[in-house]
Amino acid sequence: MPALRLRRPGAPPRTPGHEAPPGTGTGIARTAPRPYRRALRGLARIADPYVLALAGTVALAAAVPAEGGAAVAAGRIADVAIGLLFFLYGSRLSAREALAGLRGWRLHLLILAATFVLFPLLGLAVGAAASSLLTPQLSTGLLFLCVVPSTVQSSIAFTSTARGNVAAAICAGTYSSLLGMLLTPLLAGGLIGQAVRFSAAGLAALGLQLVAPFLAGQLLRRWTHGFIGRHKRVLGRLDRLSILLVVYTAFSKGMAEGIWRQVTAPRLGALLLLEAVMLALALTATSTAARRLGFPAEDRIAVVFCGSKKSLATGLPMAAALFGPRAGLAILPLMLFHQLQLAVCAVLATHWSHRNRPRQHSPGAPPGSDAAPGLV
What we know:
Layout: H1 28-31, H2 34-46, H3 49-63, H4 69-92, H5 95-100, H6 105-129, H7 136-146, H8 153-161, H9 166-191, H10 200-219, H11 221-230, H12 232-256, H13 265-292, H14 297-307, H15 312-323, H16 327-355
Helix pairs in contact: 2-16, 3-12, 4-10, 4-11, 4-12, 6-7, 6-9, 6-13, 6-14, 7-16, 8-9, 8-14, 8-16, 9-14, 10-15, 12-15, 12-16, 13-14, 13-16, 15-16
């Protein structure tokens, strides 16, 4: 018989939406003094093994790039992996839940505006102001970063940690990914131009590689959803392996073209600084807009985390499909921004989680007065 765990009076219930992320509730985070536990959990999220795996894949491509027949085979396998990735996305998406989430349309419009309007404007402004600091390929990658959809998993995790509106974060990530399949190629073609394979044949190939598998996943969801639910962990690893393969293939092609001769330490530092400025502006803009529009604290948390983040899982396959052999430097800004947003948002989520901790409801207090206002 499992042991019962008593909850102290006034403590929030352990609902699924407020569980700690896997791997953050053991070890030093559990034995550390209470004020530091949340900070340690945030740092554990920064040191994600997947981030380390991405860095290791780039190093592997630099040391042992795929060449000749191996490069052709790796490219074809990567194409199949991308199709499988979007098939799984379609199989996991519940159309009923997505439609039900439309009731919070004001919140979702704000997040979509931040993702597909604010970020492209920031990319154009920052790129024009610092054009001499980056190579044309890195500038292209910076613009591509700005048209990528928002994240799903990490936005949900950070919103949950900060005690925000988790349901809104789930729907916002879903809508952003769906619209991104259409808006990302259109915005990339309009802002980047000739570097993108933006033609009738290119769009048809993109639709065949991304949209068709997604729609197939939706159509077959009735039969595949149960299998995917039962093997969630294995298929999650397959997702990540597919993305790592895309990274390896793209950087292997980049090595053949000598892209690393263009990437010096000062340019990498300038790129990281520019991305930090963009992230700070996005965080400030989403927070200010959500407050001015009168959203409650839980919704403001969801707006900030969903509206300021970019999806590595969706962006890398799209970059491979849009840029082809030139995808190496195009995905580098997105990979750096991914690590930067994890670090910054982990600190914010930890801080807001501490400040937004529900207090014991006192007799006679009005309902809804337990959460501290003005957190975002």
